[in-house]
Records
---
Amino acid sequence: MDNTEFLTRQKCLLEQMQPNSICLVPASNLVTRSRDTEYPFRQDSYFQYLCAFPEPEAWLVLSNHQKYSQGLCVLFCLDKDPSMEIWHGRRVGPKHAKQQYPVNMAFALDDLDEQLLDLIDGHQNIYFAQGHNHDADDLVFSLLQALRDAPKQSKQAPSSLIDVRIILDEMRLIKSTNEINMMRQAAAVATQAHIRAMQFVESGKNEYHLEAEIHHEFAMQGAKYPAYGTIVGAGDNACILHYTENNQALKAGDLVLIDAGCEWQGYASDITRTFPVSGTFSTEQKQLYQLVLNAQLAAFDMIKPNNTIKQASDVAIAVITQGLIDLHILKGELADNIEQQTYRKFYMHGLSHWLGLDVHDVGHYKIDGQDRPLKPGMVLTIEPGLYIAPDADVASKWCGIGIRIEDNLLITQTGHENLTIAAPKTISDIEALMLNKSG
Ligand code: GLY
Ligand code: MN
Ligand code: MN
């Protein structure tokens, strides 16, 4: 993505801020994994959204004070340091940052406290995501206090602190053409990874072998990181929603559930497929699988502008509940079961979430207490599931079966586009792919 899009986003933020306001956005910091090693660095999503500068320990400062006729965007970043760079990698440094990134000025981080005091001084409001980054909270509150404590009230601290997420979350919810292209790529790579896993699976292998195949495909396609902890749950491990141990043997006769997505330039995909280790579904597996798929397809029909996620969710719940009654897993009338939420024992999570720079992306699901209508440019998941616990109080033939089917949908002007449609999911497509493993 070139700088134009970032400049447009900055302008959009500045225009929505009250007049005479300043906004502070910290980058992520490195997080210790063990002793002197760190987790791989992942830029903060808000920072990434406004400026693609890729390093930790940076700050972005934006102002719409009238003294800056075009608005102001300042970057603070680590200074060049040859000996540190030999050990820890290259730094862009302020001089090159100003040339390469969408900022008016760039300064070394060493000057942050002093320069921020001067920059904030005289603004009426400060926009900041309080509670998002505790180190950043400490710095901002100490700077505000320093402004209030300035001798003879020679400085003016902003009188109000406003949550910048209220603006940024709404902006991030509607994806631009460039963002949609990134998400298409994230979806395409993850789709290939799921196909690879279906072609690779066989009994005697382990869940971690499938995890490795998935991550191999991500990495080979240039998507260096998964967007979240990959879930590979075989047999009744599929009934643990956030199972990530991924260390049990794959057994013929079991299903395996893989929930895996990658990041492409920060944008996430989030796909789940469930398939038989042996390549063929058993009768009971087929019945439950088809039920989840029917629920997903019925929900898809509701995914269009001006409908709500709640409408799609209600349809999925109705299909699943009626199906469970038909299979004698639930008893009684559909309406009573829905009212008493009896399905929640077997389908206990939501149908959907926003998808974007974060896998569970930002954006309110309700406006003024009402479910928000879908709009073109939103991207969301549709992910119904059924999880019959090993000790569930139902006929034993159903026990220990866990199924989820998850796709990523873009809302279009007239309906939706399924970005992950190429990952096989009908029973016949999965069985055919697995029979002919070379694809
Ligand atoms: N992979 C997390 C989720 O499906 O929400
Ligand atoms: Mn999801
Ligand atoms: Mn998922």
---
Amino acid sequence: MRKTRRRAAARRSRYAQLRHEAEEFLRLHHREEPAPGGPAALAARIAAVNAEIDATGTYRHTAAELAHGARVAWRNSNRCIGRLYWRSLRVRDRRDVRDADTMAVEAVAHLREATNGGRIRPVITIFAPDAPGRPGPRIWNEQLLRYAGYADRYGGGVTGDPRNVGITAYAQRLGWPGGPGTPFDVLPLVVQGSDDKPRWFALPDDAVLEVPLRHPDDDWAAALGLRWHAVPAIANMCLEIGGVCYPAAPFNGWYMGTEIGARNLGDTDRYDLLPVVAERLGLDTSTDRTLWKDRALVELNRAVLHSFDRAGVTLADHHTEARRFLAHLDREREKGRRVGADWSWIVPPISGSATPVFHRTYDPTQSKPAFVHYREALARARGEEAGSVEESGLV
Ligand code: ARG
């Protein structure tokens, strides 16, 4: 008896919270995209959503609300330097899709639309939301495209991307036979339909554009067989709009060169290539003070920019993207909107002070709608067994 009452109270407070978040979002949407019908239309929409929440425990966004919510979630991504074009995000509304097979098909279609022969387009595909008693589907990969990381049986080494050791082993446990064993084997998608177990799906070759790396005036990058995929498509964050979580909503922009040349290929817990590149360049690595790491970083980044340009694949450089970010700040200020930003993510990982985004501070407040990490996705990416979907929390 007491338990029933407590549960009812918890539900009431959850509904109150949802009604509050829904109303905030509907007001924001109305402010930024005024609907015909003015304040009366807004009031009617809020009333209808409240009634829907009372009846079902959730509510359904209109297509316009969904599209605006997704774009504003990008605008609110405090870590993203590339937000100037937030309005251009193409929104694929696939809320009726909750089974793994169709999701895999749609993820491939997403990649094709985003890749666009190299002229990368920002795209988001939104699958079914979480609803009371009915969790939405999940994509367990961190991104739609990632390279496998095979942990060596002996010793602590990894072939491929050490970041993806967890998802690689997980896909193998699900029955993926593994790729050819190169450092750049494309991982299969691991998709979990709403009422299903996770399953793996190989990506067709023609949906995966990759760029072989070559240095403009040297042959070490080609000799090392370096490459990277053209589209960064984050797949394991929840898109949260007006209190509703869309747990499977893969989205992509285009790369900034340093993400690949400095972080993915250079970080010691990723491909860790600085010593390799330094050796190829004949640098003196006996002491940090020769700045061999710094010089290797610059040459690696030159190779990335040169190779994407040569392949005709969209890729920003950090100087241009930093200028665009300042233009974004100006534009938003003119609109009377606050921009949240995280300095440590906005400033590029090389040559920070040579870009204008370095020389100022930002307000780190996180606004909604937003893309949020949820705990079980992070755990799964690390290769830990995650708890049940019900007990997952947002982090
Ligand atoms: N840094 C991540 C990577 O290297 C991608 C994050 C999103 N980046 C982007 N340009 N939209 O794969």
